[in-house]
Structure formats: C-alpha cells, structure tokens
Amino acid sequence: LALLGKKLGIACCSLFLSRLQGFQFAGFLVLILGSGLAQLHFQPYFYPVYDRIELALTGLLSAILVSGMVSFSSSLASAADPNAHNPQAAITVIVIGCIAALVLASLYFVARDVRGILRDRRSARNGAAAESSHMKRLRALNESNMQDLDDPSAFFLSLVSVSANETSAPERHRMTVGSIEMADMDKCGVEP
Asked: Are 86 and 78 in contact (CB under 8 A)?
C-alpha cells in the first residue's frame, strides 16, 4: 500500500506540476526522502539487509534527483545569460556518475543476495545442523509476539511446520521454542 501511495505521488507530481519545475522537484524530493524515512522507521522487510538496500538506493536516487535539478537550473541560468560561466559539463558528469553508482549498487546488492541464497541452499544440502540466521530471526520475532496470541497451539503448529522444512528428521525431536520442547508440544496434541 505504501508503494502504491509513493507511485501515486510520483504520478501526481509528474502530471500536475509539470509546468512548475521547482514545485515538481520539491514534491519528488519530499516523496523520496519521506519514503526513505518511513523505510528507516518501519523496516518493513523481514530480512534487514533488504531495508539497508532500500535505504542505499533511495539515497542514490535522491542524489540523482538533486543533481538533475542542479543541471536543469544551470541550463535555465545559461539560457538567460549566454555570457555567464556554464558548468553544464561538470554537472552532466556528476549526473552520469550518480546513475552509474545506482546501477553498480543495484548489481552489487543483487549479486550479494544471490550469493547468500546459494550459501543457504548449500548448507541445507550438506546437512548443516546450525540454525540459519533467517530461522533465528523468525523464531525471535514469533517469541516476542507470543503474548499477543489467543491460541498458542496455532502458533506452535505454524512454527513447527516452518522448522520441519528446515531441519532433518533426527533433529526435529530436539527443537525448542523458548523453553518449550517439541516433546512438550506433542503432549499437548500439536503434531509437526
């Protein structure tokens, strides 16, 4: 929903403020920085690395926006006074550098994510007994929200089904959620 609101804001700024470039720039900057601050505050992604990636790309996008506005205002100034010094070449290099940094950062983050996925799959295939960092984060998130549950058995059932997919059969009988062992859940009638 937040992404749709951001896209709607960008579309409104593009359509309704197209003749008022200063307000259009301000609208875009408010949208981009506002979404970056919301991203920083709410951290909506399950994996924290995706929040950091989003913030880095938002910062680079803001730099591109500001350098584009500087380029636009410089071209307006040179059109008004043709004899004035025109830094358009330097500004163009800065804009191209910001765009190249955005592309390189995007490629780096995609490669890093793919490498992490492949590493997790390899460790799962090799029968690594260590719990993955993703599973640890899920377990901590679920344990912190346990007091809000009306029916803890449904919580245990969902957690056990997720855990059962990540662990081998001999390890399942040793799994714990907080201080509750799987054997205790079996006594309560919760089947994995």
From this structure: yes
What DSSP letter does each residue of 167-188 carry, written as one string?
S-HHHHTT-EETTEEHHHHHHT
Four-residue CA torsion sign, 157, 159, 162, 166? negative
Locate all alpha helices (DSSP H) within 81-181, ordered by sequence: 88-125, 133-144, 152-166, 169-172
| pLDDT by position in tens, the chain (length 192) | 788 888 899 899 989 988 888 899 999 999 999 998 998 888 888 778 888 888 988 998 898 888 888 888 877 777 667 776 777 788 888 889 988 998 999 999 999 989 988 887 887 777 655 566 667 777 777 777 777 767 666 666 666 665 555 544 444 444 454 444 544 444 544 444
Among 55, 56, 66, residue whose Cα is nearest residue 28: 66
Q: How far apart are the first and last CA of the chain?
A: 34
Nearest-angstrom CA–CA distance, 87 and 74? 7
Neighbouring-strand partners of residue 176: 181
pTM, 2 dp: 0.61
Cα–Cα distances in Å, from 18 out to 21, 32, 68? 6, 17, 15
